[in-house]
Specification:
By secondary structure, the chain is mainly alpha-helical. About 50% of the residues lie in helices and about 10% in strands. The protein contains 3 helices and 2 strands, in the order H-E-H-E-H. Strands 1-2 form a two-stranded parallel sheet. It is globular, with a radius of gyration of 14 Å. The relative contact order is 0.14.
């Protein structure tokens, strides 16, 4: 990518047109610094990509449960 995700998030939050758009970070990093920076910029969630198949399976199940919840 040409722009770091946290830089993009900062630009979104600075935009009067986009600042209220919900943002979920989907990252491979477990850096507490990145999480703290993203939290300061009002993210809605921070998801760390699973490192193995079992992790991906658990994540898929969690997503399925959320999508099946009544609105």
């Amino acid at each position: 990518p040409k722009v770091d995700g946290l830089v993009l998030l900062e630009r979104i939050r600075e935009s009067s047109r986009l600042r209220d758009v919900p943002v979920v970070i989907w990252s491979s990093t477990r850096s507490s610094r990145d999480y703290e920076t993203a939290s300061r910029l009002r993210i809605n969630d921070f998801i760390v990509k699973p490192a193995d198949l079992a992790g991906w399976t658990r994540l898929a199940e969690q997503i399925r449960v959320v999508l099946e919840e009544p609105a």
